[in-house]
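Q: I'm building a small set of examples for a reading group on sequence design. Run inverse folding on the following structure and report the sequence directly after it, with nothing in between.
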């Protein structure tokens, strides 16, 4: 387990990470659950739920790019903080080849997250269309 000397507490509904903000921390969920969501267009798309032992915000340890998703506390949540300085010390102890592979994986994960959010939006549109067609079909059957 990674050493996390700093612990932060969040209440239900409180934002832990906000999409678009630059941060250099990663988080380990020590207790509780969080919801991960991504803004696509004007919609927030749910990416998933994370629980105790899960890590999020790890991309902030590799680059100074904006957060790609928001993370909101579900109930009370305690997280351990992994700061970039500590992580850099760990990473400096690894071979250059491994660093290259890890950075490649982080880039691919960022692209996959973007694509997943777009697919979720398309799925939601298809679902709404199907629901609307279903209502029309029921109304037509009732008229007969």
């Amino acid at each position: 387990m990674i050493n996390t000397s700093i612990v932060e507490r969040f209440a239900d509904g409180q934002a832990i990470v906000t999409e678009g903000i630059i941060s250099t921390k990663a988080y380990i969920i020590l207790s509780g659950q969080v919801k991960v969501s991504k803004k696509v267009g004007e919609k927030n798309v749910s990416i998933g739920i994370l629980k105790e032992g899960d890590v999020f915000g790890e991309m902030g340890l590799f680059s100074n790019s904006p957060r790609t998703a928001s993370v909101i506390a579900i109930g009370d949540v305690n997280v351990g903080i992994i700061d970039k300085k500590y992580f850099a010390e760990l990473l400096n102890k690894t071979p250059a080849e491994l660093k290259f592979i890890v950075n490649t994986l982080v880039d691919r994960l960022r692209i996959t997250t973007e694509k997943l959010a777009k697919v979720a939006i398309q799925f939601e549109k298809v679902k709404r269309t199907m629901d609307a067609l279903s209502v029309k079909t029921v109304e037509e059957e009732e008229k007969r």
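The longest helix spans residues 96-143.
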